Amino acid sequence: MKIVQGDITRLDVDAIVNAANGQLAPGGGVCGAIHRAAGSDLAEACAKIGGCPTGEARITPGFDLKARYVIHAVGPVWHGGDSGEDEALAACYRNAIALANENGLRSIAFPAISTGIYGFPPERAATLAVEAAGKALAKHPKVERVIFCCFDDVSAKRHRNALAAYRKQP
């Protein structure tokens, strides 16, 4: 697992993860950026799939992206932390890695799912993301590389701290 700062749409990996909405429709933030970079074929492919429940993931081709695939993971909207948000967010990472493994993909890059307009506390999200991804990697050996692609310095620092703490665990 490693942390990079930059534009997830420009990464040369097998799959990038879209912080998708439940309808898999083009949206704002990272979702909008991925749809713009991939081209209109991505929205058509998503429409054919239909929706996706919170915590689950679906896969489409990457179309005009460097990444061969886009894995769409629907994160939870933050409602204060007592509505299963932690488990739903962790499930996004686990299910995306499982889907990558099922499709023989070796590298996957994640944005900070649910930390934008969905309002999930970013530090809490970074810790959950790293822990869930680390556990999922142990179960899915085809996936060799997980990248947390952070848009800014603050997010990158949060993820680096979470990764350092995870690596110190017994």
UniProtKB/TrEMBL annotation:
CDD domains according to UniProt: Macro_OAADPr_deacetylase
Protein name in UniProt: O-acetyl-ADP-ribose deacetylase
InterPro entries: Macro_dom (IPR002589), Macro_dom-like (IPR043472)
EC number(s) given by UniProt: 3.5.1.-
Organism for this UniProt entry: Methyloligella halotolerans
Keywords carried by this UniProt record: Hydrolase
PROSITE patterns: MACRO (PS51154)
Residues covered by the Macro domain: 1-167
GO terms assigned for molecular function: hydrolase activity
PANTHER family: GANGLIOSIDE INDUCED DIFFERENTIATION ASSOCIATED PROTEIN 2-RELATED, MACRO DOMAIN-CONTAINING PROTEIN
